[in-house]
Design the sequence.
């Protein structure tokens, strides 16, 4: 797949996930075979007001070859301003979030709310495309609700407005992350446009990766929840050898965080990841409680190491 003049080798991308796809997790997933990881979604308005906490989301790992930032907002002038700003200069591709279903995002007229206002969505994309000579991509859903499925119309609008590629997560905003992703909708979107279409939703292993490509004709795949606690999924799909065990992956994850953030932040932030790394393991109920409550992060890692050594 090519987006603009940027080539993707494996056609495999880590999806943006709030509070998850920071510099450390993206770096791990790229190590395991993802072509790129998309940043956490970043508020254009927060950057406009120079919010320091938001600026932390802009950190990039040395191994990230293709760098993708995802912005959200509903004001075309502010979105265009940030696209043209120094904030996004280090990134290769700017993705616009028009699919986030979170209530606080939707209530502010951002994310998937924009699927109910196609003229405004078009203005945002056009403004961003006109502001910078870098590929602009758009991520969206099948529609806002079961009685408002408009992904094909929305996809055509994105292409007409100048988007270089689109990603579709074929669930409605109403569904959030429940139910089954409608891959047939991806196929319909792919048949309706000539720009690259990236599929997102329910890809959890090599078999589902191959199947979504075959069934939809999409150009690439974006993996989100399937990578939680399992960055090795990208190696499984690409055939790249895995050279680290689970404990070494956890240690590297923490090491990258420690290079970039305070210990106080890391101590709270990493807990959910540690629980995901333990998902599927037998006899870990007590270990999960310990990992969730022990304030000393190194003690948590040591407990996890002992579990894997005693399996």
Sequence:
């Amino acid at each position: 797949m090519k987006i603009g003049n940027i080539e993707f080798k494996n056609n495999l991308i880590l999806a943006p996930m709030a509070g998850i796809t920071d510099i450390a997790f993206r770096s791990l997933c790229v190590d395991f075979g993802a072509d790129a990881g998309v940043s956490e979604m970043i508020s254009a308005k927060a950057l406009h007001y120079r919010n320091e906490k938001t600026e932390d989301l802009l950190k990039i790992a040395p191994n990230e070859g293709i760098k993708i930032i995802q912005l959200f907002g509903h004001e075309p002038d502010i979105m265009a301003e940030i696209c043209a700003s120094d904030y996004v200069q280090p990134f290769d591709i700017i993705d616009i979030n028009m699919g986030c279903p979170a209530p606080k995002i939707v209530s502010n007229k951002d994310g998937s709310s924009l699927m109910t206002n196609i003229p405004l969505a078009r203005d945002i994309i056009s403004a961003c495309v006109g502001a910078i000579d870098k590929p602009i991509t758009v991520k969206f859903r099948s529609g806002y609700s079961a009685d408002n499925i408009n992904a094909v119309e929305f996809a055509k609008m994105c292409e007409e407005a100048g988007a270089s590629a689109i990603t579709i997560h074929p669930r409605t905003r109403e569904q959030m992350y429940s139910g089954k992703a409608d891959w047939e909708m991806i196929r319909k979107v792919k048949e309706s446009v000539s720009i690259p279409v990236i599929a997102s939703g329910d890809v959890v292993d090599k078999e589902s990766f191959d199947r979504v490509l075959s069934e939809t004709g999409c150009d690439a795949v974006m993996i989100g929840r399937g990578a939680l606690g399992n960055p090795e999924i990208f190696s499984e799909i690409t055939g790249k050898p895995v050279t680290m065990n689970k404990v070494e992956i956890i240690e590297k994850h923490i090491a990258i965080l420690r290079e970039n953030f305070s210990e106080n932040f890391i101590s709270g932030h990493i807990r959910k990841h540690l629980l995901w790394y333990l998902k599927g393991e037998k006899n870990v109920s007590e270990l999960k409680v310990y990992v969730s409550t022990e304030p000393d992060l190194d003690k948590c890692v040591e407990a996890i190491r002992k579990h894997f050594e005693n399996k």
